[in-house]
């Protein structure tokens, strides 16, 4: 793809940082700018070569051709209208679109584009639904991550072979969408489009529920460990796998749980219902019922490798 | 270590098969015999080089110096008394211990040893508590595995760096124990001793609960998938990690859940209680409470890598 020009990271953590590393490795940007509310993260991002320069929020929005908004969902929803205000003001103050800002000569993005990467989409699209510069925003979600956070956790190739979601694509300008699609492709992602509403229901099932489960498992086992320090001698790979997500960061997950609670609560209830069925079958040592539940659950192997 | 002589596998699946592959790779046995109730598994174990010969159950018990009992927990508890009967009869019929059977000249094990590898221990030790040949049996549990089963799933190095449990060690003969300890060490395991009772409580927390959780998660998501085939576009690494154990085999897990239900039910209840607390905090969008739960759960990172 042609150059993205100046790419600005608002939030220099795992997702934004990993995208920046790929963008740099693929020579997709002329310059990478960074802004992070946490000074430690900003300094680490520069030290780790994730960004070329740390700038103020205002400078970043003014100078970037592509803004990657990779901060917790609630903060993103709160900040996005201001970003679009600044972009809108900048555009309307100019004589013509091409004069808005310096743009790399071969850049696909003739006006600044904002891409967010949050795990909940409805509150974010709602926050700018009627904004005059809504078209410059693409509601994205690269479906990759780890249980770690911060610029130290960023790594190249995190998105290779993964799905890159774009929500409510009809509300983004064609060139903004094309810019994000080209970025996803360059990072090795397969584009999937859906509504923000559908996205938030699906992620409640396949991502947010897994985190609730994993946090609850960790709490249960840590509680037991208070009485018995030896319990972890027995923790094998199965436990590590199921409890891995319990390492995930509160800054990211509290806003996700809060903002997707309407979708998540019925999913937790559906899960609790299966858990109760399992418990009943165990309590009554009902072998045929347990076998039936397990063999039905085994069908998951056609889905996950 | 010196040779184990003839090693016989009753059950040629993941755990027994993987131990056999390591035993062969380390040249610890003169001969590896196999018996499996499932003819397909037996044939595969021979084809894959896990065993040298497939024999009858009676031949295997009569000819082996070390018997690895690696079949589901309920089957192991049912079969073990008969194995010890045969060993006992063989010993008592002989003039002296050394004359019982041919033994490799440098073998540590002067009489046949039986090691089981089941994930539940109380029903198995109970089944032979007062058996005259109890001392020849070692109640083991190598804390490793995968979500796959059968001889095809067996692999070398599965136990490297893992914990190898021995339960109720005081009920095993010193030489039988020494034989198993040497085997664990050769396979790269760190020996941990505990009572069968403690083992079954601990595994309920760190293994069996994880499986209940994972099966229930898979059932929940598969149920949703009936209505929406696109949900798995969104399934990322977090979901795969949490749902991985749901691929596990019913033949193995139905007996575990049945036979460890007294320990497992209160653990499921403790977990359900944490799940409810999480649900309440989400329902009321109680940010500080969610943060507190998540940050407490994060302490799991000191335990699992």
Task: Write the SSE topology.
Two copies of one chain form a homodimer.
Chain A: E1 6-10, H1 14-25, E2 31-35, H2 39-47, E3 53-54, H3 57-63, E4 66-69, H4 73-93, E5 113-116, H5 122-127, E6 137-142, E7 163-167, H6 174-186, E8 190-194, H7 196-225, H8 237-243, H9 250-259, H10 261-283, H11 287-297
Parallel strand pairs in A: 1-2, 1-4, 2-3, 4-5, 5-6, 7-8
Antiparallel strand pairs in A: 6-7
Task: Give a structural overview.
2 copies of one chain form a homodimer. The first copy, chain A, has 305 residues and is an alpha/beta fold. The first copy, chain A, is 49% helix and 12% strand. The first copy, chain A, contains 11 helices and 8 strands. Chain A has helices at 14-25, 39-47, 57-63, 73-93, 122-127, 174-186, 196-225, 237-243, 250-259, 261-283, 287-297; strands at residues 6-10, 31-35, 53-54, 66-69, 113-116, 137-142, 163-167, 190-194. The first copy, chain A, has an 8-stranded mixed β-sheet, sandwiched between helices. In chain A, helix 2 (39-47) links the parallel strand 2 and strand 3. The longest helix of chain A has 30 residues, at 196-225. Chain A is globular. The model of chain A is unreliable at 93-109 (pLDDT under 50). At the A-B interface, helix 7, helix 8, helix 9, helix 10 and helix 11 of A face helix 7, helix 8, helix 9, helix 10 and helix 11 of B.
């Amino acid at each position: 793809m042609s150059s993205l020009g100046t790419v600005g990271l608002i939030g220099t953590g795992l997702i934004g940082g990993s995208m920046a590393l790929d963008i740099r490795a693929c020579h997709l940007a002329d310059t990478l700018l960074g802004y992070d509310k946490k000074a430690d993260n900003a300094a680490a991002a520069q030290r780790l070569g994730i960004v070329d320069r740390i700038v103020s929020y205002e400078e970043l929005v003014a100078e970037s051709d592509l803004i990657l908004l990779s901060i917790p969902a609630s903060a993103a929803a709160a900040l996005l209208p201001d970003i679009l205000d600044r972009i809108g003001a900048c555009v309307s103050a100019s004589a013509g679109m091409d004069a808005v800002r310096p743009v790399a000569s071969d850049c696909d993005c003739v006006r600044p584009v904002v891409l967010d990467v949050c795990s909940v989409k409805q509150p974010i699209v709602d926050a700018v639904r009627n904004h005059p510069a809504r078209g410059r925003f693409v509601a994205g979600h690269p479906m990759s991550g780890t249980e770690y956070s911060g610029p130290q956790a960023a790594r190249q190739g995190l998105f290779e072979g993964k799905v890159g979601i774009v929500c409510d694509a009809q509300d983004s300008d064609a060139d903004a969408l094309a810019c994000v699609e080209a970025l996803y492709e360059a990072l090795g992602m397969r584009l999937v489009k859906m509504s923000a509403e559908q996205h938030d229901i699906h992620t409640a099932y396949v991502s947010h529920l897994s985190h609730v489960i994993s946090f609850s498992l960790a709490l249960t086992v840590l509680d037991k460990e208070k009485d018995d320090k030896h319990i972890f001698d027995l923790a094998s790979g199965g436990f590590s796998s199921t409890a891995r997500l319990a390492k995930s960061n509160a800054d990211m997950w509290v806003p996700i749980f809060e903002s997707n609670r309407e979708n998540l609560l019925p999913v937790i209830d559906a899960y609790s219902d299966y858990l109760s069925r399992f418990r009943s079958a165990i309590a009554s040592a009902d072998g045929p019922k347990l076998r039936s539940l397990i063999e039905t659950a085994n069908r998951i192997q056609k889905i996950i490798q």
